[in-house]
Amino acid sequence: MKTFFNVEDIGNLDQALAEAKEIKQNRFGFQKLGKNKTLLMVFFNNSLRTRLSTQKAALNLGMNVIVLDVNAGAWKLETRRGVIMDGDKSEHLLEAIPVMGCYCDLIGVRSFAGLKDRDYDYAETIVNQFVQYSGKPVFAMETATVHPLQAFADLITIEEHKKSKRPKVVMSWAPHCRALPQAVPDSFAQWMNAADVDFVITQPKGYELDPKFVGNAKVEYDQKKALEGADFVYAKNWSCPGVTNPADYGKILNKDMNWTIDKQHMSWTNDGYFMHCLPVRRGLIVTDDVIESDHSLVIPEAANREISAEVVLKKLLESL
Ligand code: CP
């Protein structure tokens, strides 16, 4: 595996899940692979889980780790070509990336969507430059359109808790006070479509995700209907993906609190589990009683971020 952005990159999904199970039981069993290898984690945006879990996974594998917070101590980076750099940006990404590549064996990048220019975001302009110019394997730690380490951890969590062979998994949009990117729902949809689950997306009109991520998923605009019989409820906010109206890209079109997942919503499910990638805004996405209930999987999901990261780093190390 030379890059990790999409579900296809991991190869056979059943084998990847089996590997995750093995690593969870023996997370220090592959330390020889990472000896004298260095992971560089580059953050253009904030993080708690991704930062800690990926670093922990690398340490489990015997790697050295360097963390660079681009907006806290590094030179401000220009990302566009053809500009006269007479503003506050001292270095161009096109020099910075190959320099970063000199100091490491693997690079993880977190670079969120700007939500201003759909074409720029959906072309994955920043991370593709890392792939092109770093000379090193690159993996997503949440990019403009994907967050595969999260989706893989979510799938591991569903595998661990499912009560039937093919559970019903419902991803429900929920309200938020800020415009959020689509990376988490995009990846979750992509991975659920590849997994052996009955996958449904429910959202208000106007929030249709990019068709390349929706794939064959069932889209149900009636949230109650969607949640009926659900084994897993994956709540998430996302801003308008601009599919039906590109001018609305990145906007908040709806703040309807009837979409907040509360006890009544969970009562429509098949005694279902509540899931969210975190961080989560209580009172908007989910009520206190639901996230604190014994059917909330938010902490096991976060714990499995260490496992998904370790599987991915192991596969990248094996390909060096
Ligand atoms: N779920 C997730 O990626 O969390 P962080 O943004 O804290 O890394």
Blueprint (SSEs and pairs):
Blueprint: E1 3-4, H1 13-25, H2 31-34, E2 38-43, H3 49-60, E3 64-69, E4 77-78, E5 91-92, H4 93-102, E6 106-110, H5 118-122, H6 125-133, E7 138-140, H7 148-161, E8 168-173, H8 183-194, E9 198-202, H9 211-214, E10 218-219, H10 223-227, E11 232-236, H11 263-267, E12 273-275, H12 288-291, H13 298-318
Parallel strand pairs: 1-7, 2-3, 2-6, 4-5, 6-7, 8-9, 8-11, 9-10, 11-12
Helix pairs in contact: 1-13, 3-13, 7-8, 7-13
The structure holds phosphoric acid mono(formamide)ester.
Sheet bearing the most strands, described? 5 strands, parallel
Spatial ordering of strands, largest sheet: 1-7-6-2-3
Strand content: 5-15%
Q: How many individual β-strands?
A: 12
Radius of gyration: 20 Å
Binding site for carbamoyl phosphate: 47-50, 75, 110, 147-150, 277-278, 305
Function: Catalyzes the transfer of the carbamoyl group from carbamoyl phosphate to the delta-amino group of N(2)-succinyl-L-ornithine to produce N(2)-succinyl-L-citrulline. Is essential for arginine biosynthesis.
EC number: 2.1.3.11
InterPro entries: ArgF'-like (IPR043696), Asp/Orn_carbamoyltranf_P-bd (IPR006132), Asp/Orn_carbamoylTrfase (IPR006130), Asp/Orn_carbamoylTrfase_sf (IPR036901), Asp_carbamoyltransf_Asp/Orn-bd (IPR006131)
